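Entry for the shared binder. Reason: the reviewer on the internal report wants the predicted structure included alongside the sequence.
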Amino acid sequence: MSGMAYQSNLGRNVRTFRSLRRWTLKDLAQVSGVDTGTLSRLERGEAGPSAENVQKLCKAFGISEGVLFSDDPHEESHKHRFHSVPILDASQVSAFAAGRLATTADSAASSVPVGYGYSKSTFALQGLVEGMQTVFSDTDYLIIDPEVAPKPGDFVVALNGPTVVFRQFRLTGQGDGMTFDLVPLNSFYPTIRSSDPGVHLIGTMVEHRVHRKRG
């Protein structure tokens, strides 16, 4: 296969996979981390892909590199390996944690597309970063999967009494029951301990999607 055909297959396949998912270039940029200008040039065959961008696109679509460049990508076998997740606000997260809310991307006011591999209970948050602003911004999307158990150093969403918080998980003991601290990145905010009343883990951050408003 010539280099030109190789590149042509890539552009066609990226456009095909994106269209079948009903993603805009902006949607794919959010999922993959490849900017819209680069995606547009790739689809038109005006630029060759970097190894890093190939990996990002394969992860976003849930396919292998061979499928991404294939003459016959068999999209049907891959098109269900993605979904959109609802964007919840703090009050909805609290209701979700209490079992009073079963929000889906279809019923939510807004949603974001994610790659394959996350559970059906995954949701997104935006704006819940008080005490964490050294790394996270109010405009970022935090993709949270309640079915992923946190490991030391992971970032988690939890209930602290009636308040929903986003903190870093620090394991402090695994004897008769797991004990942990929820640590802010800003030291002016207090550390929350699992022994405090009303502390309950909701889910683990599985993706941090930086979102910068234009203009």
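Summary line for the report: Residues 1-6, 75-80 have pLDDT under 50 and may be disordered.
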